[in-house]
Amino acid sequence: MIILISLVVAGKAQEGYGLAFASKNIAQEDRTSLDLTPEKPVQVKGSYSLSFDLSFQPFFRSYFGYVFRITDEKRQNIDLIYNVRTKAFYVVTGNSFSGITFSIGPDSLFHQWNTIRLDGNNEAHTLAVTVNGKQVGIARSPVISGSMLRICFGANYRKAFRTFDLPPMRLKDIRLFAGNRLQHHWPLDQTDGFTDKDLVTGQTAQVKNPVWMRPAFTTWHKADSFIVKGNAGIAMDAATGTIYITSNDSLYRYSCYTHQTVAQAQVPHISPQGLHAVFNPADKQLYQLMADSQQVAVCDTGRHTWDKALNPQNVTSYWHSNLFFSAYDSSVYIIGGYGDFRYKNEVHRYTPSRHQWEQVAMTGDTFTPRYLAALGHNEAGDTAYILGGYGSTTGDQLLNPHNLYDLVLFDVKRRTFRSIYRLKEPEEQFAFAGNMILNTAQQEYYALTFANDRMNSSLQLIRGSLKEPVYTAMATPVPFDFYDIRSAARLFYTPENDELTVVTLFSLKNNTTQVRIHTLLFSPYGLGAQAPADRPAPLYLVRIMIAIGVVIALFLLALGIAALNRRKATAPAPVAPPPVTATTIIIPAAAPVAAGHHSGVLLFGHFTVTDKDGNDITRAFSPLLKELFLLLYLHSLPGRGGISSEEINEVLWPGRSVKDAKNNRSVNLVKLKNILDKTGAYTLAKDNERWIFRFEEPAVQTDLDHYYQLLQEGSGNISALTALLKRGPFLQGTEYPWLDKFKADIASHNIELLGHFLEENPDAAPAFVLEVCDCMLHADSLHEEAVRHKCRALVALRQHAAARHLYASFLKEYKSTYGATYEVEYAEAIAHC
């Protein structure tokens, strides 16, 4: 019975729907607001509960803001706020913290639905919060005591409670209970429009700027489309979520996290038709291979240069073969393919460390010659699955070629093939895109199928079992032009942002290739995984399930008694079937931290640099390399236009000859690149004789980039700005004559924005005013208004001695600096208190 009910709940959790909130880096009027009570408040008596499912969208810089605000007819409020500095949720009642605070681990917060329930009791004057079935806090005598509630999630447009700070969150299934009775249920299961209807009473919730999630789960989104020169190859660096597209004159890098494509020009060369591309995670380099002629070209992805060009006259005889990099033996395997009127079942192996090619002699079950199959492999690289394809028993194209639907296991260690099953032949024949994604937790795969008997085809995502010959179609198809020697498709998954990416290629007649990239919100663990419901299933459903459970239990009991009577005194131990090898190449057993390990550069406070693993590598920067880096980075900020070699020479090597300065610059640039390579992706190139340096996010995060984004948001995100500035003044302890103008500009921006906030918010919380003033005093230690506001805040907090001491220190430093006495007395300075 328990299992059956769990299945019902889990089945519902697998549905992809909800409301995403537009929140950061956009105008306030474009942010999402969900008002459950737009027309009239909801009435509650005695005890009530508000329950909803929540997750956060990954890869945002800031998550500060209001999840919801509940207000009553007495203008009292309960707020749920996320604090990005402490990474915790706080329940606020009125103008005070209630004492209820809780955190949700990043795996759950970013990749799963988390059920949060607020339980209020107006009679007992208590407020409790439960997260995923566990109570996290209870407060006595909460502020709200009214019975007419208005509830708003995200941005709030009500006059007395207006706020536009909200986290980039996702919600679904909001329920309101009166006692134990379900009073309202807004599922947030829409595809368009600006309303959602309560399933219980039909009451309509109003949504401003909605981002409905169901279309994102079911309809592929076109992320990019562009044309490259020559023949293209596709490969992915799973560690950084970067998809590489090779071409004749450039290397294109598409970030699955930012959905941006960057092209890096290279020395022009001609790529042969049918080349293979693969990324080697061991040496972090990109390879192009031709199995026919055993050619290999290696690209240093940090410097974006190839060590050689492949012979363009060689056209492959292994079209649409499957390949993968095996971590087991650090080799690239190429399996099957088609060319010269023959389908192949050969296995080729290339070992980069030895620059060695070999054809692997295979044993085990017969592997039918084929191409257009899908392949997925496990993280260890010792096992791969090959699904379907098109070929013939003999390999001869003239002898009964046909579609194949078998699943075959390739054992790298033992060099064997093993047949697992054969799918039932479908009414509409199909082949497969070159790779598939494996999910070991559920023993299932995800692959792309397409009709290979027409040019105007489409890619259909399917989910299938690695144990049983069953599969199910998912989402809408993606348009796909198929002509076997001119087209290709690859499927990728990035668990960090719960997204599938499809890259398709089609070679045009003018020696160019059309590249199209589509994405789909997808979460086999994430948004399909949910903690147990904190409310029971509907009563009628429980009764049905209990009845079914009782019948099944009685039936099983009868079977068990019969089996017990028949059982022999000594029963042979059952033979377990051979286990399916664990496969986790794309989807990890547990979803990783949302942002993963990101390298970073911190310029507020003391200069600090961390590498991709989070290690502090600041000491690797000598004083000269530090200044060289800052010259390049700061002069490449928006509006600066870069820095010339002559300007670098004047700062770092004044008086040296042009030749000596050039040699010193070249040597130190190489040293600097060796350090920066440890941080992640960046570009350093010349544009109109000026050096331009940029980090690529989210691989490398810098507080200065974050700072400028916060400036664009204005005072709407002042809390995040103060959290950043609290670390200290810009490049504290670093002094160069050329740096003064940068420091002055940033100090001016800080004082203007923070000062404006203090003027416009005279009733701001004193503790927060102290933080704002401290940030202003980092920029200007004698800023008069900052000192006066800080003194007033200290007085408001009853710290009179601290306020007097602060003002006395200010008067002393003022006289020492300016040689004059500051005329405003302490009593006058705090007069507004």
From TrEMBL:
| Membrane-spanning residues | 540-564
The record's annotation in InterPro entries points to:
AfsR-DnrI-RedD_regulator, Kelch-typ_b-propeller, TPR-like_helical_dom_sf
Which residues lie in coiled coils?
A: none
Report a single Gene Ontology molecular function.
DNA binding
Kindly list the biological process annotations in GO that this record carries. regulation of DNA-templated transcription
Alphabetized UniProt keyword annotations: Membrane, Transmembrane, Transmembrane helix
Is Mitochondrion there in the keyword field?
no
The protein here is known as Galactose oxidase
Source organism of this protein record: Chitinophaga varians
